[in-house]
Design a protein that fits this description.
This protein is mainly beta. It folds into seven domains: 163 residues, Protein of unknown function DUF2961 (Jelly Rolls, Sandwich); 130 residues, Jelly Rolls (Sandwich); 137 residues, Jelly Rolls (Sandwich); 79 residues, Immunoglobulin-like, CATH 2.60.40; 81 residues, Immunoglobulin-like; 145 residues, Jelly Rolls, CATH 2.60.120.260; 92 residues, Immunoglobulin-like. A hairpin with a 2-residue loop joins β69 and β70. It is globular. The chain starts with a helix and ends with a strand.
Length: 913
C-alpha cells in the first residue's frame, strides 16, 4: 500500500510538471488559433523580427558543403517565414535547414516546399504564383542556419525569424507528427484553410443598424461603454459601387479620444477599392455576406464607430458589430489602428509614406491600391521597414510581388489566400502578417518605392493595419509656443484623483483633478520654457511616445516632397507657419523679396497656410521668411534653390502633341534597371511609315538664349528621324540599336543642339520620320527630354542676404551646408582622369553604417555607382574613372546609412579639359 501511494505521488508530480511544461510552452500558432492573440503586445514572441531579403547569393558560404548561407542566428527564437523563388533547374538545387546544430531538412528547392514531411507540409508550405512560401513555425533553442545552392544567380529569398528572450518555453523542433499537436499546428491549419471561421466558438453581443446615409451625413453605428472586445464588423449594401464607396469613410474612436485611431475609406479598409475577386483572408472577407473584418478591437472605456458619406448620393447599408464585454488590460493589449495614405501622383525619387508611427505596437497588415494602373512596373518598388531606428531590425523587400508572397509579376494570375492576395491585375494587393507580425517597441517607419527606381508616376492608395499600446491622454497641438492656448485631456483615471503633467519627467506643466468619471480636461496657456525643441510629455508618469515640439519664436517650413528644395519661375509652394498671433497678417518673402500676392490671416490655432509662386530671379539659394504685422518673424531652416533650367519631359507634353498618323503614347521604363531615362519615362510615336510627323508644343516662361540638349531612345523597332524647332532643322537621329530582344531599349547619348534664342511664347518641336535602318523592324520614335539651360547670367536682386564669392555659380541641385567639411570630392573641378569621392566620419558619432555613392549626369541618369561601402573611423572612399565623360556638370550623391538613419547629400562637380 505504501509503495502504491509513493507511485501515485510520483505519477501526480510528473503530471503536474507535464501540465506546467505545456502551460509555459510558447504556442507559435496562437495568432491564428486564438482570435484575440494578434492584438496582444505582452506575448513571449513579440520581439522585433529580423529579416534577410536578397537577390542573388550572399557572400558567406558554409564550410560543410560550400552551400551559400541565406540566414543564421544564435540564441533562442523561431523562424516564422521563408519565401523563395528561382529559375534554377530543380535538379541543380539543394536547400538545407539546421536547427540547434542538427540538419533537419535537406532536399531540392521545390521538394522542400511541395513534398509533405511530418509538420513540413501544406497548407503552411504553399505555392503562390511564381514563388514558394513556408509559414511553418520552426523554433530553435540555440541556433539555426539555412543554406542553399543552385545553378545561376537568379534567386530571390526572404527569411524572417524572431528572437525569444526566454528559451524555457521553446521546445526543440521535430518533423514528426506529434510535434504539430504540441504546437497546436493542426488547429491552426483548420483555421488557415478556413474550415473554421474566426470567433466561431464565441457567443457575442451584436449591434445591428440599417440606415440611409445622405450626402455629407455622419452616422454613429456603434457606441458602447467598455471594457469590451469588438470581434467582427460587417457592412452590407444593396449594390457595391466601389467608385462611390470610395467616398464612404469609417472612423473608430477608443476610450473617448476625440482623434480617430481609424480614419480610412471603407472600400480600402476592406481591400475592395475596385471590386476584384472575392476576398478570403484571415482578417478580411468580401463575399455574398458583405464586407467583413475579423480584427480584434479591444477598448477599456468606450468604443465608437461612425460612418461619413462624402459621395453624391444616398447610400443604403446594413451594419453589424459583434462584441463581448470582457476585461481589457491596457498593458497587455494594443488598440487597433488603421492609417490611410494617398499619393496622386507619386513623385519622382520620393517614397510613398505608408506609416510613420511612434510608440509600441505591431504591424499586422497592408493593402495597396493603384487605381487604373495596367503596368506591372508598379510592383518593382520595394517596401522598406525601419523598426525602432535599429539597423539590425530594418529590412527591405526585393519588390512588390515578393512582399505579397509571389514572384514574377504573379505569373499573370489573381488569387486570394489567408495571408496574401492579388485581387485585380496590377491594381489591388494585400498582405496580412499574423505569424510574422512586425513588432516595434519604439517606432515604425514603413515606406514604399513607386517603381523600381523610385520613378513610377501613378496613383497610390495604401492602408496599413496595426496595433499600438494606448495611452490615457491626448493633446490638441503637438507644436506649441509660449503664450498659446493648449488643451490636454484624458480618461480612465481614478475619480477625483490628482493629475500631474510634466515635460521630460522634471518640469511640471500643470496639476488638476479628475471628475467623478475619471476624466480631466485642462485648457491652459503654454508656459514659458527655457528648453525648446522636442519635449516628452507625461501624465502621472505615463509617457506620450510622440514628442511635443516647443518653439521659442514663430516657425515656418515649406510643404514639399524633398529637401533641399529646387524650384523654377512660376512654380507654386505651400508654406505653413506656427506660433504667430491669431488674426495676424503674414507676408512671405525670399530673403527680402516679397512673393506672396496678399497677406494670409493666422487662425485661432496660431497657425497659417499660404500658397506662393516663385518670381523670375537669378539662380541662387534664398531664405524663406514670413513676417507678420504684429512684428512676429520666422525663417525656415531649409534654403530654397531657384534654378532657371527648363526641362520639358516629352511624356508630359503628350496632351498637346499631334501626330500625322499612327499612335502616340507614354511608356514607363522603370523595369529597365540597367539604363536611365529622365524620370524613367518617354513619349513613343509609333509611325506607320516614313515622312510622318509628330509635333510637340511647349511654352517657355522666359525669353533667353538657351543651351539646348535633346535625349531620345534607341531600340530594334526605332527609326530614323530629323528634328527641328519652330521649323529650323537641327539634326538627324538614327534610333536603331541591335538588342537581344525586340522590346529592349536604351537611352541615347545626350545631343547638344547648340545655343538658341527662345522667346517667352509657345513653341513647336518637330520630329519627321525619314525611314528606318534596313535591320530595324518598325518606325518608332522614343522622345525623352528637351533641356533648356540659360546661357545668360542674371544679377542677384536687391534684398538678397548673401552674395556669391567671385563668379562662383551654384547648381539648383546642390545641397547647402550639410556635412560640408566631411565630404570628399577630389579634385573638383577635375580633368579627364580619376575622381575620388567619399565621406570622413563626423566626430562624436559611432563609426558604423554604410555609404552609397552615385555619380549622375545633369539630367539625373546614373553613370557610375558604388553601394554598401563600410564606414570605419577613417570614413569611406571610392575612385571613379571619368576619362570617357564629356566636359560638363555632374552630380555626386552620397547616401549614408548609419544608426538607423538615412542621410542624402548631393554635390555638384565639374569635368574640364
Amino acid at each position: 500500500m505504501v509503495k502504491f501511494l509513493k507511485l501515485s505521488v510520483l505519477l501526480f508530480t510528473l503530471l503536474i510538471l507535464e501540465v506546467r511544461t505545456v502551460y509555459t510552452q510558447i504556442n507559435f500558432y496562437s495568432r491564428i488559433e486564438d482570435p484575440r492573440a494578434i492584438a496582444r503586445l505582452d506575448c513571449p514572441d513579440c520581439q522585433p523580427l529580423r529579416y534577410v531579403n536578397r537577390f542573388g547569393y550572399p557572400p558567406d558560404r558554409d564550410p560543410i558543403d560550400s552551400n551559400f548561407i541565406f540566414a543564421q542566428d544564435t540564441g533562442a527564437g523561431v523562424i516564422t517565414h521563408i519565401w523563395m523563388t528561382t529559375t534554377a533547374p530543380d535538379s541543380t538545387t539543394n536547400f538545407k535547414i539546421y536547427i540547434d546544430g542538427n540538419l533537419i531538412s535537406s532536399s531540392t528547392f521545390v521538394s522542400f516546399f511541395v513534398n509533405a514531411r511530418g509538420v513540413l507540409r501544406p497548407p503552411f508550405d504553399s505555392l503562390y504564383p511564381g514563388a514558394f512560401v513556408c509559414d511553418v513555425q520552426i523554433p530553435y533553442k540555440k541556433s539555426f542556419k539555412i543554406t542553399y545552392i543552385g545553378e545561376g544567380w537568379n534567386v530571390y529569398y526572404a527569411i524572417a525569424w524572431r528572437p525569444i528572450s526566454d528559451p524555457s518555453g521553446v521546445v526543440s523542433f521535430q518533423e514528426s507528427q506529434p510535434y504539430a499537436i504540441q504546437y497546436h499546428q493542426q488547429d491552426a491549419e483548420a483555421l488557415y484553410e478556413q474550415r473554421v471561421m474566426p470567433w466561431s466558438k464565441e457567443k457575442p453581443l451584436i449591434s445591428y443598424d440599417t440606415t440611409a446615409l445622405a450626402p455629407g451625413a455622419k452616422k454613429t453605428v456603434f457606441d458602447t461603454v467598455g471594457p469590451a472586445m469588438i470581434q467582427k464588423l460587417n457592412f452590407a449594401f444593396p449594390n457595391y459601387d466601389f467608385d462611390e464607396l470610395d467616398s464612404l469613410w469609417i472612423n473608430m474612436y477608443w476610450d473617448g479620444s476625440p482623434y480617430p485611431a481609424v480614419h480610412v475609406p471603407l472600400a480600402d479598409f476592406f481591400c475592395s477599392s475596385n471590386g476584384g475577386i472575392n476576398i478570403h483572408s484571415l482578417a478580411i472577407r468580401n463575399d455574398s455576406n458583405g464586407l467583413t473584418s475579423y480584427f480584434p478591437m479591444p477598448f477599456a472605456l468606450r468604443g465608437k464607430i461612425e460612418l461619413v458619406n462624402e459621395c453624391k448620393r444616398i447610400l443604403q447599408l446594413r451594419t453589424s458589430v459583434s462584441y463581448s464585454l470582457e476585461v481589457i488590460d491596457k498593458k497587455s493589449y494594443g488598440y487597433f489602428c488603421a492609417h490611410f495614405s494617398e499619393s496622386n501622383p507619386t513623385r519622382y525619387h520620393v517614397y510613398h509614406k505608408v506609416l510613420h508611427e511612434r510608440g509600441m505596437g505591431k504591424v499586422v497588415g497592408f493593402y495597396h491600391y493603384a487605381p487604373h494602373n495596367t503596368d506591372g512596373v508598379v510592383l518593382e518598388g520595394d517596401p522598406v521597414f525601419t523598426i525602432d531606428s535599429n539597423s539590425r531590425n530594418n529590412f527591405r523587400y526585393t519588390g512588390g510581388e515578393d512582399y505579397y508572397n509571389s514572384g514574377w509579376w504573379f505569373l499573370g494570375q489573381v488569387f486570394t489566400k489567408p495571408f496574401a492576395g492579388h485581387l485585380n491585375f496590377f491594381q489591388s494587393f494585400y498582405r496580412f502578417q499574423f505569424l510574422d507580425a512586425i513588432d516595434f517597441t519604439k517606432s515604425i517607419d514603413f515606406d514604399l518605392q513607386p517603381g523600381g527606381n523610385t520613378d513610377f508616376e501613378g496613383h497610390f492608395r495604401t492602408i496599413v493595419y496595426y496595433y499600438k499600446r494606448p495611452i490615457s491622454f491626448w493633446v490638441s497641438l503637438d507644436t506649441i509656443k509660449a503664450g498659446e492656448h493648449w488643451n490636454v485631456a484624458g480618461a480612465g483615471y481614478k475619480p477625483n484623483s490628482t493629475i500631474v503633467a510634466k515635460f521630460d519627467s522634471t518640469e511640471t506643466i500643470f496639476t488638476t483633478t479628475t471628475n467623478a468619471s475619471g476624466e480631466f480636461s485642462a485648457y491652459l496657456i503654454v508656459p514659458v520654457s527655457k528648453i525648446h525643441g522636442p519635449r516628452i510629455i507625461s501624465i502621472n508618469n505615463e509617457v506620450r511616445p510622440e514628442p511635443v515640439y516647443v518653439i521659442s519664436s514663430p516657425a515656418i517650413r515649406p510643404i514639399a516632397d524633398t529637401i533641399p528644395l529646387t524650384l523654377r519661375y512660376g512654380d507654386s509652394l505651400l508654406v505653413t507657419g506656427t506660433g504667430f498671433d491669431p488674426g495676424e497678417r503674414v507676408q512671405i518673402y525670399l530673403d527680402s523679396i516679397l512673393i506672396s500676392d496678399s497677406a494670409v490671416i493666422v487662425g485661432g490655432d496660431y497657425r497659417f497656410l499660404a500658397k506662393v509662386r516663385m518670381p523670375h530671379v537669378a539662380e541662387w539659394k534664398y531664405h524663406l521668411r514670413a513676417m507678420g504685422d504684429h512684428h512676429n518673424e520666422a525663417m525656415a531652416n531649409e534654403l530654397i534653390t531657384i534654378t532657371r533650367i527648363l526641362p520639358f519631359e516629352f511624356e508630359d507634353l503628350l496632351p498637346w502633341a499631334v501626330a500625322d498618323t499612327g499612335w502616340l503614347y507614354a511608356e514607363n521604363l522603370s523595369s529597365y534597371w540597367g539604363s536611365k531615362w529622365s524620370k524613367q519615362a518617354i513619349a513613343v510615336f509609333q509611325s506607320l511609315s516614313s515622312k510622318e510627323k509628330v509635333r510637340f508644343k511647349f511654352f517657355s516662361t522666359v525669353s533667353d538664349t538657351f543651351d539646348v540638349k535633346l535625349a531620345l531612345t534607341k531600340g530594334v523597332k526605332y527609326g530614323i528621324y530629323s528634328y527641328s524647332l519652330d521649323g529650323n532643322q537641327l539634326g538627324i537621329f538614327n534610333g536603331y540599336k541591335f538588342k537581344d530582344w525586340d522590346d529592349d531599349l536604351e537611352p541615347s547619348d545626350t545631343m547638344d543642339l547648340g545655343k538658341i534664342f527662345i522667346t517667352r511664347d509657345t513653341h513647336m518641336f518637330f520630329f519627321t520620320c525619314l525611314g528606318k535602318d534596313t535591320a530595324a523592324k518598325e518606325f518608332r520614335l522614343g522622345a525623352d527630354l528637351l533641356l533648356l539651360t540659360p546661357t545668360t547670367k542674371m544679377a542677384l536682386p536687391k534684398g538678397v542676404f548673401t552674395t556669391p564669392p567671385g563668379d562662383t555659380t551654384l547648381s539648383g541641385i546642390d545641397s547647402p551646408g550639410v556635412l560640408d567639411s566631411y565630404l570628399v570630392l577630389y579634385p573638383n573641378p577635375i580633368g579627364k582622369g580619376e575622381l575620388t569621392l567619399g565621406m570622413n566620419f563626423p566626430p562624436g558619432r559611432t563609426a558604423d553604417g554604410k555609404l552609397d555613392i552615385i555619380l549622375s549626369d545633369i539630367i539625373g541618369r546614373k553613370l557610375l555607382w558604388q553601394y554598401d561601402l563600410p564606414m570605419t573611423e577613417f570614413g569611406a572612399t571610392t575612385q571613379f574613372d571619368v576619362r570617357r565623360f564629356p566636359v560638363g556638370n555632374y552630380v555626386a550623391e552620397f547616401i549614408l546609412h548609419s544608426g538607423g538613419e538615412i542621410r542624402r547629400i548631393s554635390r555638384m562637380l565639374q569635368i574640364r579639359e
